[in-house]
Amino acid sequence: MAILVDRDTRLVVSGITGREGTFHSLRNRDYGTNVVAGVTPGKGGQDVDGIPVFNTFHDAVEKTGANTAMVFVPPRFAADSILEAEDAGIALIITITEGIPAHDELRVYNHLKRGSSRLVGPNCPGILSPGKANVGIIPAQFFKEGNVGLVSRSGTLTYQIGNELAQRGFGNSSIVGIGGDPVPGSSFIDMLELFEADTETELIVMCGEIGGSAEEEAADYIAESVSKPVLAYIAGFTAPPGKTMGHAGAIVSGSKGTAAAKAEALEAKGVRVGRNPTQVSEIAVEILGTRV
Amino acid sequence: MDLLEYQGKQLFQKHGVPVPDGRPATSVPEAVEAAEELGYPVVIKAQVQIGGRGKAGGIKLAKDRAEAEENATAILGMDIRGFTVHELYVEKASEIDEEYYAAIVFDRAAKKPMAMLSKMGGMDVEEVAETDPEAMRMLHVDPLLGLQDFQGRRLAFESGIAEDVIRPVGAMLAKLYDVFVREDATLVEVNPLLITKSREVVALDAKVTVDDNALFRHPDVAEMRDLSAEDPQERMAKERGLTYVKLDGNVGILGNGAGLVMSTLDVVAQAGGSPANFLDAGGGSKAEAITSAVEVILSDEKVKAVLFNIFGGITRCDEVARGLIEAFEQIKPDVPFVVRLDGTNDKEGRALLAEANLPNVHTESTMLGAAEKVVELAA
To answer: Which end of chain B is less enclosed by CB atoms within 10 A, N or C?
Structure first.
């Protein structure tokens, strides 16, 4: 098993005709993901290396049975594209786009919450279920199937930690980037719930960073509702207050959202927190035993 | 992006929020001319992006031309908690009867805007929140509906403000919410929200933060960016499209991806070093971007050694190596570099570096090893 994306995924890509959109859609297909359609208004009837392009999500869903969307359009068009995918009945919308205005994200988040579609991202690397499907920009070559579920607010840091785990013999059930924006469509808690229910996952690694309170909320949730071991890493101990550290959501506001406070909140609930990526993999060995 | 008080008030005026009449000024003669036009008494206010201006002597009353000149001279150029005053705001003095507090903030945890009102204005709100939490009333707004009249009324009634101003304060909250939404703000704060002797409701201060990601739809606000107040390295990086934050240590840092760079800073600190900057060269970094980034890092004279921490996913390590080799040809740095290349095309990247045999460049294969090495070299 895995979570969210697997062999049943039928992917439609919004922005497939753009340079990056084409590159990553084809990479995802090469990995084995079933990429069934693309959407670019005005380019309906064309194809991208055999993948049919439609003018609307509604068309794409009707003609191909797409059930998962990847949004790859520029920030000013992204909210509209997510809302269109939702309106067309897509159950899972994975948004890679970075730089979407916060107010657009607020409206989209609050609208989607009233329906049944799930948004992952924006500003995220996507979701990889090794051996099954890759939706997004995660470099799949570093990861193999296994029993560690990984959820993260960051891209490259996930690869770093995933790679440290891989070097110690661990593979992954799924790797989910929830994104570095202030209004993520899915939270750590949403993913913890899915990994808890996933039979393949035996250890959950969550990789947080400064800003907001998602890690603190996750700590409470873990104590109450997660029976599997959870291991955490938090980036940004040295970040000064008031400065946005690359990700729009990575900012310490006054004394709120610091890495120290997050690590403390997690440890207070019995979640072990690695102080660097290498230590995370060492703790994983302690929890699951040696795999090499 | 944080706006200066007078810039925030320009947005307030655009959306019908009442503010006292005022003029910005960048020199003493300009300030005096503004005071003469407005008529005395006026208040001369330092325009800096930091609180506590009044206590620091950055806000002064002037009853006549001589005082206007004297106070403008005193405030212009003064240092307020590390911020130099380059601009003044000359404002018609208001007759203060009561001071309240009003704000629309972006509540990340609830993922909704939140409206706030207190009858205890004119002081540090965090202090009010601690000493008298009941005095601060707040409620969430559904971003799909906007702030409703009943919500403004409810806050006004519950906050215990004077009865005669309940209606106008409610209306003020609605207008502040307009500013928040229509200008893509993430913070709109008025402290104090003034009730004048003639019982008018006026925004005496304005603290507005706008969303950088939404500036494309607000070209007028984008122009308000105060380049003179920005750190020179940060400005240089921004012009080159790099994400850079200046810190105060001596280890220059470059990585790809915000999370990995944050983690790199932490690991350098754990190894006993002190990072000079945060620099995210981004995904898919090409050689030119790397050269450009090295220039920005080395323009900080405190930098004694530089760490490249790359985990190549989409970014290819051979591209990064080429960029570094190019940077060495162009800049000829005189500080040591530690380079850790891992991930996509890492072997090719390391081979290129070995072949180029750059002076003072050390390659490491792990993040921890690289951090220890660079700290040793910077010491």
So the answer is: C
A254 to B212: CB separation less than 8 angstroms, yes or no: no
B311/A238 CB distance under 8 A? no
Question: Is B21-92 assigned to CATH 3.40.630.40?
Answer: no
- Whether residues A85 and A150 fall in one domain: no
How confident is residue B38, by pLDDT bands cut at 50, 70 and 90? very high
Give whole-number Cα distances, A98 to A154, B221, B305, in Å.
Answer: 12, 21, 31
Q: Which domain holds residue A284?
A: 143-288
Closest-CA residue of chain B to A111? B144
**In chain B, % of residues over pLDDT 70:** 98
Who among B109, B217, B344 is closest to A139 (CB)? Answer: B344
Q: Which of B247, B257, B344 sits opposite A154 (nearest CB)?
A: B257
Say if the Cβ atoms of A160 and B262 lie within 8 Å: no
User: pLDDT for B160-203, tens place per residue?
Assistant: 999 999 999 999 999 999 999 999 999 999 999 999 999 999 99
Q: ipTM score here?
A: 0.93
Domain boundaries, chain B: 21-92, 96-222, 230-378
Chain B nearest-CA distance from A139, in A, is: 5
A49-53, B21-25, B237-241, B258-262: the lowest-pLDDT one:
B237-241
Contacts of A211 in chain B (CB under 8 A): 108
Summarised one tens digit per residue, pLDDT across range A8-48 is 999 999 999 998 899 999 999 999 999 999 999 999 999 99
The reply to whether A184 and A62 lie within a common domain is: no
Is residue A2 a part of any domain in this protein? no
Confidence class of residue B76 from pLDDT cuts 50, 70 and 90?
very high
Predicted TM-score (pTM) above 0.90: yes
End residue of a domain, out of A64, A85, A120: A120
Instruction: Supply the residues of B annotated as catalytic.
Output: 101, 189
CB contact (8 A) between residue B266 and residue A157: no
- Using the beta-carbon criterion (under 8 Å), do A163 and B243 form an inter-chain contact? no
Residue B313 is predicted with a pLDDT of 78
Give the CATH number of the domain where residue A159 resides. 3.40.50.261
CATH code for the domain in which residue A101 is found? 3.40.50.720
Fold annotation for B96-222: D-amino Acid Aminotransferase; Chain A, domain 1 (3.30.470)
In chain B, which residues have their Cβ closer than 8 Å to the Cβ of A142? 313, 343
Average pLDDT value over all residues in chain A: 95
Q: Do residues A283 and A152 share a domain? A: yes
Which of A25, A72, A98, A103 to mutate against chain B (most B CBs within 10 Å)? A103
Residue numbers in A near B367 (CB within 8 A): 160, 276-278
Query: Which residues, in sequence order, are bridge partners of residue A175?
Result: A128, A150
Q: Answer yes or no: is A4 within a domain.
A: no
Contact A111 B255 (CB under 8 A): no
Instruction: State how far residue B336 is from chain A, nearest Cα, in angstroms.
Output: 23
Q: What is the pLDDT of residues B96-109, one digit of tens each?
A: 999 999 999 999 99
A15 and A62 assigned to the same domain:
yes
Q: Do the domain assignments include residue A126?
A: no
Task: Please determine, for residue B204, whether its predicted confidence score (pLDDT) is greater than 60.
Answer: yes
- Contact yes or no for A156/B255 (Cβ under 8 A): yes
Same domain? For A102 and A14 the reply is yes
Residue A292 has pLDDT above 60, yes or no: no
